[in-house]
Backbone:
């Protein structure tokens, strides 16, 4: 009985530590700014309202930022998967190649964003891609950020597909490319989908490059920072709530893969 | 398949890396080692200017100490959580999901949220006031408390990563070992110290290295919570030089110092992965 009580108390404290901050920002999203600025702050909204969302939708920034965030994330999925799929297959099948690529992509994965974002920003100013309204510069940066994530997911997936299946297809007269195209890739389809979702999430969440490269044409993360730094708690929290929807949905879909370790090495 | 054919398949990725990673690195080095006034190169003026800036030394010190404190806190918390959540009890799956949740949140959402909690008129001080305790200035620039708040927020967000690594490692330890030790009269602490921790050591080392290198990248947490000069780190210092002063060369020099630190610390991580492969 004492064990059950201890577990219940520890569980309640943990849940509080995680869920309370989240509940507070969702509360702020439906609270008028006047109430958010009051002292002492309220724990539940006194006058719940959707005004913050209405103000956002009526502004120029949110519809633009949402479109930009989605467009850059989708383009990043496309470019990242295209660039990694053949290399991930080679890394899974030929171990010396796999070891070298693994080392290179670990370095890419842990390389500090700011050490690259600064020279990229200076270069993009020269090439006219800085603060690009279509987010072309940010797309290029996010492709680099997402490459290791896609590579590790796909390499792990190809490793789990027995090479014997490709060899059997070749015995039946398929070329090597045909064997991979008709046997391995269809089997890897769930992992390709997982990699696509993960890459979308990486781009959707990314803050540092977005802050440096899109100073005024902002996608959602810097827009949220801007609203919160300039004293719009309601709109900032509403952007946060909007950002949470796809982020949590993707994690919910990926959860079984994360538990099974299929995304291991990707740091997520 | 021959090795050369395999490399040929890797070329799209390698070409992209050369262009997107290699080119900016070379460009940053050129900026960092060029005198912005005369255009002469290679020169060390930018680095000697860095060395004269007290804010840079603060940033360098914080960039070494913040990751240490944050990773230590993450390891201890994650270990406690993993030990707790590998027990069998009802509601365990739900609690595990809650514990992992912070990492599912976008970084900027976490930081905005934490800012509203720790600002002077925020929820943390409201809770203190409700308990009759005088409010604290959690984010006062340069204070030890602001430093600790940054560590706490950082750990709040990324502890789940370490937790998942340790939980998987714990699941791999056969229960019989602990049971046998119990029959031999080992108490829970002795079992933790003599059996569980030594068996967890590889996972602990892996988590330490991975998070250690990752933690060097710290940027948004101190920037959003305390501003550029509140708790400066190398990344926010470089950002400050570039965004607020338009000093590309000095920003590139700070970025070079950061990249060098990061690459040096990656070496043990790469060694470990090479042993595993």
Residues:
């Amino acid at each position: 009985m004492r064990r059950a009580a201890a577990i219940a108390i520890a569980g309640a404290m943990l849940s509080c530590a995680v869920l309370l901050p989240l509940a507070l920002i969702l509360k702020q999203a439906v609270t008028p700014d006047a109430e958010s600025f009051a002292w002492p702050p309220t724990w539940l909204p006194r006058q719940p309202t959707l005004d913050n969302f209405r103000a956002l939708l009526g502004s120029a920034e949110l519809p633009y930022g949402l479109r930009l965030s989605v467009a850059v994330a989708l383009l990043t999925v496309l470019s990242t998967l295209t660039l990694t799929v053949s290399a991930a297959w080679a890394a899974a099948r030929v171990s010396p190649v796999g070891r070298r690529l693994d080392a290179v992509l670990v370095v890419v994965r842990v390389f500090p964003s700011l050490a690259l974002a600064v020279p990229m920003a200076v270069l993009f100013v020269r090439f006219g891609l800085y603060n690009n309204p279509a987010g072309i510069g940010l797309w290029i940066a996010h492709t680099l950020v997402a490459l290791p994530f896609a590579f590790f997911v796909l390499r792990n997936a190809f490793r789990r597909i027995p090479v014997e299946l490709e060899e059997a297809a070749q015995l039946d007269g398929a070329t090597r490319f045909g064997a991979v195209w008709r046997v391995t890739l269809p089997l890897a389809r769930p992992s390709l989908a997982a990699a696509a979702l993960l890459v979308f999430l990486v781009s959707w969440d990314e803050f540092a490059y977005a802050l440096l490269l899109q100073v005024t044409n902002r996608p959602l993360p810097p827009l949220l920072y801007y609203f919160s730094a300039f004293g719009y708690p309601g709109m900032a929290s509403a952007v946060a709530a909007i950002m949470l929807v796809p982020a949590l949905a993707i994690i919910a879909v990926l959860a079984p893969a994360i538990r099974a370790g299929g995304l291991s090495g990707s740091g997520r | 398949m021959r090795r050369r054919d395999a490399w040929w398949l890797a070329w799209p990725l390698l070409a992209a890396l050369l262009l997107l990673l290699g080119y900016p690195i070379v460009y940053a080095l050129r900026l960092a080692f060029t005198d912005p006034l005369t255009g002469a190169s290679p020169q060390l003026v930018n680095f000697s200017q860095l060395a004269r800036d007290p804010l840079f030394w603060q940033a360098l010190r914080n960039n070494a100490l913040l990751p240490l404190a944050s990773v230590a806190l993450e390891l201890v918390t994650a270990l406690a959580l993993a030990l707790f959540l590998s027990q069998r009890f009802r509601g365990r799956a739900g609690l595990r999901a809650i514990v992992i949740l912070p990492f599912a949140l976008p970084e900027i959402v976490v930081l905005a949220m934490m800012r509203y909690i720790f600002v002077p008129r925020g929820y943390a001080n409201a809770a203190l006031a409700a308990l009759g305790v005088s409010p604290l200035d959690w984010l006062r620039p340069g204070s030890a408390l602001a430093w600790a708040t940054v560590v706490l927020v950082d750990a709040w967000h990324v502890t789940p990563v370490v937790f998942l690594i340790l939980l998987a490692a714990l699941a791999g330890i056969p229960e019989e070992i602990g049971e046998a030790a119990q029959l031999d009269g080992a108490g829970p602490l002795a079992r933790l110290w003599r059996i569980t921790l030594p068996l967890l050591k590889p996972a602990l080392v892996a988590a330490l290295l991975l998070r250690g290198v990752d933690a060097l990248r710290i940027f948004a947490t101190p920037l959003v919570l305390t501003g550029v000069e509140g708790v400066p780190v190398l990344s926010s210092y470089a950002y400050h030089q570039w965004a607020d002063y338009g000093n590309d060369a000095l920003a590139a020099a700070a970025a070079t110092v950061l990249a060098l630190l990061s690459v040096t610390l990656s070496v043990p991580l790469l060694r470990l992965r090479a042993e595993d492969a």
Summary: The mean pLDDT of chain A is 92.
